[in-house]
Amino acid sequence: MDTTTTQNRETGLDEAAALSAATCLFRSLGEPARLAIVRHLALGEHKVVELTRHLGLAQSTVSAHLACLKDCGLVTSRPQGRASLWALTSTPEVLGLLAAAERLLAATGDAVTLCPTYGEAAAR
């Protein structure tokens, strides 16, 4: 038995559940518009109309992505008049994740963009 399996049994961690949750998190951030929304919300609360203007996306598109991010527990909203203000739920943790991603991209020379499965050519 390897040490990882032993550690997981000793701490009660379910490795499969943890990997599944991490995969879902990265999928939620893996769509360019959602990642742009998250990055913009890292600056503070915004209304949908502000996000729409900043990102150049349709209101329905922004709203759909916000609903997805809300379902994932990454954003929350609060009413303000007839509109809602949207914000990150865990700003320090999200900023830490984005900073770690930037450091990893810098360390690998953005090699992931050349990946035949997930790189820029695969997206075309």
TrEMBL record:
It holds the Pfam family HTH_5. It comes from Geodermatophilus sabuli. This is Transcriptional regulator, ArsR family. Keywords: DNA-binding, Transcription, Transcription regulation. One of its GO terms (molecular function) is DNA-binding transcription factor activity. It comes from the Bacteria. PANTHER family: TRANSCRIPTIONAL REGULATOR, TRANSCRIPTIONAL REGULATOR, ARSR FAMILY. SUPFAM superfamilies: Winged helix' DNA-binding domain (SSF46785). Residues 13-109 form the HTH arsR-type domain.
